[in-house]
Specification:
InterPro entries: AAA+_ATPase (IPR003593), ABC_transporter-like_ATP-bd (IPR003439), ABC_transporter-like_CS (IPR017871), ABC_transporter_ATP-binding (IPR050763), P-loop_NTPase (IPR027417). The chain has about 300 residues and is of the alpha/beta class. About 30% of the residues are buried. Helices cover about 35% and strands about 30% of the residues.
């Protein structure tokens, strides 16, 4: 069995308008992992998902899902995929139960009311199973989209901005559900504007900008490699300027002169003791010090700005 459930090679997409949405994108996703795709609006995230799911015709390149070609083996591929789109794509006049039952049947799966009941209970929708979708709140409608996408028990689930416009409590519930799906072997690819969502849940992070995949890396590796730490020194007495002898450390001084900030990577701990000794030699005393680790948001903003 191929360890990659999704294998995209050299995929490009240009629309008739001339807009190049994707440029030579290659991406491999391992089974049972959560990949978060980050990128600004118009970066190409939704186009990429739509092509894999068969909603948009691909350009040059190749795409395989579980070893199957998305064009040649379209029907088999589609059975393996669940998609939760950004926009509501359900009939407002159907009940929740009818929606998930119909969706399962459309993928050729036999009726399984026991599974569908457990799915609706998992999504806190069981009590709403007889309700028409038009009567539900926005958050509940979002849950129905997820139930619909999971009704045929797909191997890979695409979530396009799954928590956009939902409250914090519902977002946390969805994070829990996504983790449980991953633990049960479902591969999950999500796009999100919420950096904390990716930082909280993803195993790997992909950054896409202007149709190009800038990088794909293990989250922890990415944060170690590109993340930086700030050592913040609260000075005992304010200083007017940083002494020339401390210039090699690239320190920044706060406007009130009461705080020095030293930026370093996670492997440079030994340099701190050298810095503190240099401060002492310059007669600069500090009353407190603490560190701040870069967040994934800091890293993402820097990557997009630099076009790494």
């Amino acid at each position: 069995m191929n360890s990659y459930i999704l294998d995209i090679q050299n995929l490009s997409k240009q629309y008739p308008s001339g807009h190049k949405a994707l440029n030579d994108v290659s991406l491999q996703v391992e089974r049972g992992k959560i990949l978060a795709l980050l990128g600004p609006n118009g970066a190409g995230k939704t186009t990429l998902i739509s092509i894999v799911c068969g909603l948009v015709k691909p350009g040059p390149g190749s795409i395989q899902v579980d070893g199957l070609d998305v064009i040649r083996d379209y029907r088999e591929v589609r059975k393996k995929i669940g998609l939760v789109p950004q926009e509501l794509s359900v009939s407002m006049f159907e009940t929740v139960w009818d929606t998930v039952t119909l969706s399962r049947g459309m993928f050729g799966k036999p009726a399984d009311p026991v599974y569908l009941e457990s799915l609706l209970r998992e999504l806190s929708l069981w009590d709403k199973r007889k309700s028409k979708i038009m009567t539900l709140s926005g958050g509940m409608k979002r849950r129905v989209l997820i139930a619909k996408a999971l009704s045929h028990q797909p191997d890979i689930l695409f979530l396009d901005e799954p928590t956009a416009g939902v409250d914090v409590e519902l977002r946390r519930d969805m994070w829990g559900l996504i983790r449980r799906l991953r633990d049960n072997g479902v591969t999950i690819i999500l796009t999100t504007h919420y950096i904390e969502e990716a930082e909280e849940m993803a195993d790997r992070i992909g950054v896409i900008n202007k149709g190009e995949l800038i990088l794909v890396e293990e989250k922890n590796t990415l944060m170690t490699r590109l993340g930086s730490k700030n050592l913040i020194l609260e000075l005992a007495e304010p200083i007017q300027q940083i002494p020339e002898a401390l210039a090699p450390y690239g320190l920044t001084l706060s406007k009130d002169g009461a705080q020095l900030v030293y930026t370093y990577d996670s492997h440079a701990g030994h340099e701190i003791s050298v810095l503190l000794r240099a401060l002492q030699e310059q007669g600069i005393e500090y009353r407190d010090l603490h560190t701040r680790q870069s967040s994934l948001e800091d890293i993402f903003v820097n990557l997009v700005a630099e076009g790494v």
